[in-house]
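User: Assemble these into one structure.

Assistant: Restating your components, then the assembled model:
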Amino acid sequence: MREIQEFTLDELKHHLSSKAISGETVVLNMGPQHPSTHGVLRLILELDGEIIVNCIPDVGYLHTGIEKNMEAKTYQKAEVLTDRMDYMFSMGNTLVYTLAVEKLTGLKPPPRADAIRVILTELSRIQGHLLWLGTSAMDLAALSTFLYTMREREMILDVFELVSGARMMTTYIRPGGLWRDVPAQFESLVRRIVKEIPRRMIEYESMLTKNPLFLDRTRGIGPIDTKTCLAYDVTGPTLRATGLAHDVRKANPYCGIEQYDFDIPTQTEGDCYARYLVRLEEMRQSIRIIEQALDKLPYGPVRVPNYKFVPPPRSEIGASMEALIHHFKLWTEGFTPPKGSVYATVESPRGEMGVFLESNGTPKPYRVHYRTPSGPLLHALPVIAKGHFVADMVGIIGSIDIVMGDCDR
Amino acid sequence: MNEFLQPVVEKFKTEFKAEASEFRDEVTLLIPAEKNIEAALLLRDEFGFDLLSAVTAVDYCPQKTPRFHMVYIFYSTSHKTYLTVRAGLDGESPSIRTLEKVYPSANWREREVYDLFGIHFEGHSDLRRLLLPPDWKGHPLRKDYPLGYEEVQFTFNFKEIDVRKPKGEI
């Protein structure tokens, strides 16, 4: 066993004020195990009474070396690891990796696969926002919201289980299309969710939006402006709450999402309350996208019939020698994309999620880098939290919606 | 190529002798490593690339020159365009100037690259490890860093594998 080396006050001197060294202010450790830090996040706070003077986030407790591990696996097998990063948006994690691989190999998925991808990632966004709504309200002592949002989130996870067999780690979206077509009950189940969620959202809003206790804890708390957001590379609802309508779905559309009609909600205050309003409206917009995608859902194949990259269906393996060989080659050796590097992005519930993928012409990715939205949010946290009460810190962490698996990878 | 990127590429070619390449509609510029701050300033102030979307590195071990590529991905919210800028770095302990003063978001990103690749950033205000513990040995994303598998030893090759087996802590 090695001894654990801890930070000393001396090492962090440049982050703290001179008062901390002389003992006039208190340096307090918060986390890494703390119910309101949403994962294992450690914060070192310098406090003057109850006011936060400085804040030093310490991340990395959930670092699992996924980028390194992916380099040792073939393109198809590495995809399984991507689900485990941002576990609140696993559909999107696989989608962005898949988009990068498709860009690299030049595969173009069929329209039905694209429409199902959009439906599933938007459902994923709604369930991510539902969990955020529940936990961030719980941080502000509104416990009952959590029970309601978890109930609705379960309906969405049931859909994921129906299509992929897993509730969270789905790996359903594959390079060249989908793992398989959705079952017959899919459409009716999603239609029920689409009808149910807006009705339930009125219930959440009646509990929070005009609740004076909630307003006191969120309005004017943790404001950030557009300039700071851009400087710290903060994207997603936090950026949109400052008034800049930047959304990857509109700016650099993927999976044909540009053919659906939806708005980018914005607010101008940039505080916790503005972020809350933006996210609620985003859930409504996601419902709109899903409704349109369901109405237009085309029939047809869900996988490209290019067996050099996409495994052939089970029915063909028994009947065709070529299909058997392709299947064998794909799962033992993998496919080889051309040399080069690409960058693909999707909009996660927390901001822009990107994959930088470099290939050297072998069946294994040479370098995979995930550009995740939670890292910049935590980097900007000291700027947002400065001058607030310790009690508000919890609310701020909740409102910027960080997922530590996403930040640490 | 995107008509917005055309003048950027031209300017980079004359100013920094950059090599431009295009792959799958993505433009990549390879610049000399010592010009990275000037290039970032030019992109931010003249061409409106307001986001530094990603900073990472690629290790080309055992290749010596360049051993590493720093990869910067810039984004312009007004033109909705990405631009990749790369800079080659040589040697076992490479070093490049920090972009933290131009884009504050580079602070954590460079700490991550320092942590996982061991690339030193000159002038960085807080160059500590970001993800790994402060007493970690080595830089895991380098290609010469082992994945941590244990090679299986049999009686006939026990000694042979024992020689190259990592000893103690990795």
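The beta strands of chain A are 26-30, 42-48, 51-58, 173-174, 177-178, 340-348, 351-359, 367-371.
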